[in-house]
Amino acid sequence: MKPTPEALNKEEVEALVQARTAELMQRNEALRVELQRLQQGTAELKRRLHVATLGSQTDREIRRAALNLMEDAIEARRKEQQENHERRRVEEELRQADRRKDEFLATLAHELRTPLAPIRNSLNILRLAGSDSGAAERIIDMMERQVNHMVRLVDDLMEVSRITRGKIELRKEKVELAAVVRHAVEISKPLIESGRHQLAITLPSEPLLLDADPIRLSQVLANLLNNAAKYMERGGQIWLSATCKGGVVEVSVRDTGIGIPTEMLPKIFDLFTQVDRTYNRAQGGLGIGLTLVRSLVDMHGGTVEVKSAGTGQGSEFVVRLPLAIVQSISHHVRRELRCPQKIPRRILVVDDSRDAADSLSMLLRFLGADVQTVHDGLAALEAIGTYRPDVVLLDIGMPKMDGFEVARRTRQQPEGRDLTLIALTGWGQEEDRRRTKEAGFDHHLVKPVDLTALQSLLASLPLREVRPITGT
To answer: What is the pLDDT of residue 353?
Structure first.
């Protein structure tokens, strides 16, 4: 039992108060410590809560950024697919355009060859028929050169890609420079005369023999003469001269034309390069002539250079070519066809072009052949069964039935198995030759056919034993 305050003396009361005060102070200290701990925990909790809040925000931002990246990647992939699709579409269009270009060139060459065939045949007929007129003989020679030139130009249409790659086939022979110059002048003469220009030609008195393709080399000089004539005021002067120095022929074409700026001289032979003309004249051209000149001269083992003092000062092109090893020349005599080798063949000519068929038939008769002519595929099949030819010269593109089908049907018949089938057509690409071979043709000739080649081919064929026609 605790004593009451009344029962305690003064000293006891003071001791009790001190004891209670100490107890209260201890409790207060414990409460202060606990409060401080709680305050610290609250602060830590707030910090963690803040960090957690920040973490959640960062995660959302990361997720949002990742989503944006994914969307950007998907969009980039979609655009890439679209670009790839567009690229494939453009590439296919380019392939189709290139294919159409090849088809156009082949068709154009075919259409150009068709009228050339009767022209060449007629020339051969005139030569075989003979003439006492020297003028007529010169006309025939001139026309033959022009036809040959046209044929080679048509061949160039089929070699466009080869020309741009510098892969032109040269047909070299021993040729005199004077003959090349005459041919080039003949080609350029209309343009020179239309401009009322004067042309002076100076050649050495001794013959200069070259190992060259005469038509290609004529093309080189004609291009240079044409350039001189086109880019010069009316009534200008052109000089064509040749000299021989140490086994090299130098041919110079100089003019009084508009000249070439100094900065253009290093680029003048580059493809599609054209000088900025100061005169107002529409001469056309694509800037390929001088590139072709350089390519052809290079292929002949020569060089070409250009000189000009500048605009309005004229220009000079110098072509250097090596002389042929053999310096002596025996002048070539024109092929004599007045007494040709006789060809005792029965020949069926099939062509829907009556001019081409009739002129070729006349020519073959001059060569001693027995000839029959028809103008479509169905008539050809009938004539093969009744006429029994040794050789059939067969066009490809014809109405009713083309030459391929005629050849296939002919090979299926007993009388057609040992028959010589020769495709005579304006189509001359490798694919055309492959198709004629697959159809059953023995040979493929391209219009206009060269007479010597045709004679050699027909003479090389074995004679066919003509069997009697059996009853049906």
So the answer is: 83
What is the distance between the alpha carbons of residues 124 and 76, in angstroms, rounded to a whole number?
Answer: 70
Backbone angles phi, psi at 284, to 5 degrees: 70, -160
Q: Which pLDDT does position 355 carry in this prediction?
A: 79
Helix extents (H) in 231-323: 289-299
Average pLDDT over residues 160-183: 78
- Domain with 254, as residue range(s), is 170-278+285-322
DSSP secondary structure letter of residue 175: E
For residue 333, is it within any domain?
no
Bridge-based pairing state of the strands 346-350 and 391-394 = parallel
Packing angle between helix 403-412 and helix 430-439, nearest 10 degrees?
Answer: 30
268 and 367 in a common domain: no
Number of separate domains in the chain: 2
Rounded CA-CA distance 353/45 in Å is 106
For residue 448, cis peptide bond before it (omega within 30 degrees of 0): yes
Structure tokens at 437: 């071979």
Output the CA angle 248-251-256, nearest 5 degrees. Answer: 150
Summarize pLDDT for 223-233 with one digit per residue, the tens. 899 889 988 88
Query: What CATH number is attached to the domain comprising 227?
Result: 3.30.565.10
Burial class (CB in 10 A: 0-12, 13-18, 19+), 168: middle
Rounded-to-integer distance, Cα 186 and Cα 218, Å: 10
Q: What is the DSSP letter of 394?
A: E
Is residue 130 assigned to a domain? no
Vertex 247: Cα angle to 244 and 253 (nearest 5): 40
Average pLDDT, the chain: 77
75 belongs to a structural domain: no
Distance CA 348, CA 371 (A): 6
pLDDT at 466 over 50: no
Q: How many CA atoms lie within 13 A of 18 on its CB side?
A: 6
Please name the amino acid found at residue 132.
Answer: D
User: Which distant-in-sequence residues (6+ apart) come within 8 Å of 389 by Cβ?
Assistant: 345, 346, 347, 348, 372, 383, 419
